[in-house]
Each structure stands twice: as structure tokens, then as C-alpha cells.
Amino acid sequence: MIxxxxxxxxxxxxxxxxxxxxxxxxxxxxVIQEIEGLLDARDKLQPHVAAPxxxxxxxxxxxLMVLEQKxxxxxxxxxxxxxxxxxxxxxxxxxMKSYVNPYSNLGRDGGYYDTKQ
Length: 117
What we know:
Blueprint: H1 4-21, H2 28-45, H3 55-100
């Protein structure tokens, strides 16, 4: 007999995997909120998943461990994509500033210094 908390953990983990696969920029804020909600739900389930486990639960737990590794990889890839988009946006912003004022980043060395004042 597998505890309902373990099956709920499995369901939430599957939902997390599905959420991390949606990577459209238009719905990114919604996906981030969904991921945060699912992670909070898993945090609430965690105390109910503690040992002792039956042999059935241990076999089910091995499947959960594989799913957990997939979730970790997907979340890392999702975070990497967000970081890449942030740096790309920052580079575009800096590039636009250089078009607006192309002489703003010039060094001021070699200026005239009057020692007789």
C-alpha cells in the first residue's frame, strides 16, 4: 500500500516536469508562478513522505528518484535560459545606448592640465 502523500508527490513532480518544458517567453511569468506553487506544494508534502517505508513504497521511491533528477535538470535548464535572456537583454540595452551617444564611453586621459593657475 503506497501512501497518498507519495502519490501526490509523484503527481506534483510530473506537473513540475510539464511546467519546465513550457519555455515560451510570452508565458514565462505564469510558468514561474506555477513552478513556485508546485515547489511549495512539494514542501508541504515532504514531512508526510518520511520513513519508514514499505517495500512497495521503496520501489515507488526509486522511480521518484529518477523523476527528481529529471526535475533538477529541467529546472537548471530553465534557470539557465532565463539568465541567458537577461544577459541578452542587458547587452541589447547597452548596444542601444552606444547608438544614442557613441562618444559616452571614451576615455578622458590626455586632457589639458594647466599648472599655472
